[in-house]
């Protein structure tokens, strides 16, 4: 018999699992693509519920006002620049081809003009390790190397708020409110700890269940839990 699984409740689309994006300060991204050098000024440093690090509000000389993840060591009133041929200075935005190897960067674009997708969490920074003809190899915070196009832009520096994960939660209530801010599902309960009516692995004998954790290939949606069935079995 099918069960009311948590992934089914999520997919239904109820407000319980919908992120409160109307409370977020806005989208943090690079300014629009431009061949000319842009000069900007930091107007404010703000905290957004949807971001782990603080954000800065920057107004550029072309009247464009954007939000960016704040780098460490920045202040209100500082001048920032964006362009291909500018100084390597904290907060400046350059294409990867113009950044020397070994310099700390963050908010790296996946494709030129998308605003930045990689290394955006508080305390995050990446590093250029190699440059090819039209590609750049970057060491990400996950210690994995990723190849980007040379025209992708990044910000010089490290995202502020690096000490955030070091403070312990101490009690479950703090953890609950932290998850509640972005509507993360918490706490996460294992299927073996549930009742039989809520999960195929549930029930009083669930911890010594006599069934495999791999779901049958033709199982109904309420039974598809555990390991994913392989595409094929046996030798080729």
Draw up the topology in text.
Elements: H1 6-12, E1 38-46, E2 55-60, E3 65-69, E4 79-82, E5 93-95, E6 104-106, E7 126-131, E8 135-139, E9 145-149, E10 153-156, H2 172-181
Antiparallel strand pairs: 1-2, 1-4, 2-3, 5-10, 6-7, 6-10, 7-8, 8-9
CATH topology of the largest domain: SH3 type barrels
For the largest beta-sheet, the strand count, sense and barrel status come to: 6 strands, antiparallel
Mean pLDDT: 90
The N- to C-terminal Cα distance equals: 35 Å
How large is the radius of gyration?
23 Å
Output the CATH class name of the largest domain. Answer: Mainly Beta
In total, how many domains does the architecture comprise?
2
Instruction: Provide a count of the helices.
Output: 2
Helicity range of the residues?
Answer: under 10%
Secondary-structure-based class equals mainly beta
Strand content: 15-25%
Q: From N to C, what is the helix and strand string?
A: HEEEEEEEEEEH
Strands, total number: 10
Oligomer: single chain
What CATH architecture label of the largest domain applies? Roll
Gross morphology is elongated
The main sheet orders its strands as 5-10-6-7-8-9
Low-confidence stretches: none
Give a written overview of the molecule:
The protein is mainly β. It has two domains: 28-71 and 85-165, SH3 type barrels; 168-208, no CATH class. It has two helices and ten strands, in the order αββββββββββα. The strands form two sheets. A six-stranded antiparallel sheet has the order 5-10-6-7-8-9, with no helix packed on it. A four-stranded antiparallel sheet has the order 3-2-1-4, with no helix packed on it. Strand 2 and strand 3 (65-69) form a beta hairpin. The radius of gyration is 23 Å and the shape is elongated. The mean pLDDT is 90.
């Amino acid at each position: 018999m099918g069960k009311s699984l948590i992934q089914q409740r999520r997919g239904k689309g109820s407000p319980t699992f919908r992120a409160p994006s109307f409370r977020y300060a806005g989208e943090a991204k690079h300014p629009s693509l431009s061949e000319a050098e842009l000069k900007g000024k930091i107007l404010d440093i703000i905290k957004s519920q949807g971001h782990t690090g603080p954000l800065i509000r920057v107004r550029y000389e072309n009247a464009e006002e954007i939000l960016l993840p704040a780098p460490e060591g920045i202040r209100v009133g500082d001048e920032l620049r964006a362009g291909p041929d500018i100084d390597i200075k904290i907060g400046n935005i350059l294409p990867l081809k113009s950044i020397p190897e070994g310099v700390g960067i963050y908010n790296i674009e996946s494709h030129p003009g998308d605003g930045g997708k990689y290394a955006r969490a508080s305390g995050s920074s990446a590093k250029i390790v190699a440059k090819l003809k039209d590609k750049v190899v970057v060491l990400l915070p996950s210690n994995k190397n990723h190849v980007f196009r040379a025209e992708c832009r990044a910000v010089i520096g490290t995202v502020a708020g690096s000490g955030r994960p070091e403070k312990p939660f101490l009690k479950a209530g703090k953890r609950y409110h932290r998850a509640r801010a972005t509507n993360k599902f918490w706490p996460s309960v294992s299927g073996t700890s549930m009742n039989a009516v809520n999960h195929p692995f549930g029930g009083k004998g669930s911890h010594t269940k006599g069934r495999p954790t791999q779901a049958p290939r033709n199982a109904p949606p309420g039974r598809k839990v555990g390991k994913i069935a392989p595409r094929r079995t046996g030798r080729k």
